[in-house]
Amino acid sequence: MAQFFKAKPNSSTKLSAKISLKVARLDHLGAGIAQYQGKVVFISGVLPDEQVTVQLTDQKKRHSRAKLLTLESSSKDRVEPKCGHYNECGGCDLQHLALDKQRSHKESVLIGLMGKLSHAKVETLAPAITSEQWAYRRRARLATYYNQETKKITLGFRAKSSKEVISITDCPVLATALTVLISPLSKVLNQLSGRKALGHVELIDVDNGQFVVVRMTKSLSDNDNERLSLFAKQHGINLIVQGNEGDFSVLEGSKERPFYTLNGELKLSFTPGSFVQVNGNINAAMVEQAVEWLQVKSGERVLDLFCGVGNFSLPLVKSGAQVIGVEGVPEMVAQARINAKQSGLSNVSFFHTDLSADLSQEPWLGKVDKLLLDPARAGAFESLQWLKKMKPKAIVYVSCDPSSLARDSESLLKHGYKLKKMGLIDMFPQTHHIESMALFELT
Fold this sequence. Notes:
CATH class of the largest domain: Alpha Beta
Distance between the termini: 67 Å
CATH architecture of the largest domain: 3-Layer(aba) Sandwich
Low-confidence stretches: 1-11
CATH topology of the largest domain: Rossmann fold
Radius of gyration: 24 Å
Structural class: alpha/beta
Helix content: 10-25%
Strand order of the largest sheet: 8-23-24-22-21-18-19-20
Strand content: 25-35%
């Protein structure tokens, strides 16, 4: 007779009794770390040296997670969160920590992960690139949820560790011109007869105004179009409807694509949904620092991998370099070419390439003087396997994930590069997310 065995679960979600713990430190994701019965316990919303009452919610073999019940003692670094949605919304997770302590924590995480995962010693820690801590986001994507019973739309952000949509009325990290739109936008969306077909909503605040992009899975009726057009006129915004095939149609406002400027002269347009940095002030300072660190000389050949719409490529051209930009999204490559043309730049070429694939036959692959990398969270490991063909004297790596940066740094060290300096880029205040820049030079 065949016998079937059911595997034992490796974790339990049963709530424990209330327990009191002392928080030792924060992990790289901003959660507090404590010890209980020989296991590490991760607790969101707490700070080092705080005594807290918690319940274990997810118990595994080597660690547990717990939810905070009460603060028995508070850290001197604790501040009152500014956002009324903070305890529910999954966007920000460090509003309870003073801003200067947020930044020092991120720098410690950055240095710690680099040392632990790549054994790269940071010779020089550059001053952090910082700006405003509130109203800094020039873009955001709001989620929607249609309730079958109430026939109402909820507009907001996802809850912490959940797909549930939390209704929000304002967002203090969002640009003021955008946060004031949320409540009236929610009201008009609930007046649409076709609201059941509503997807996400994108808000954009750039140099040529505010844009609201409404994603619809079905065509809007004439009455719904009129409602949205009236809303756009009343608030002085550009309103775009994105169809089920990804097509965009301007319902009200300018037909010009959203754009931002760099150095007061470079115009970078982009399509809604395409990646651009959400913090405009930090982005401008970041680009300036990258160009400065690379010390580009006139006539040098510079390769910009993961170039997007030309955020780094175009300023590098202004430095007198011959620039090659490579990007994996074809629409962004096309836009980068347009951006170069409208800025009057000719000494730059853009290529569409899957940078995780075999690059051996790519026409752009060859000897370069300098290399700039700005990959997504997954990093640039596959691209770095072709360093022997590129042999750049200097590499600037812009990272949005310190773990992938540390892993890729190990590869760079093996190829004979040395980490000369590194610095925090505080792109996302009030959150645990860490953006950074590192300079490597061939020894």
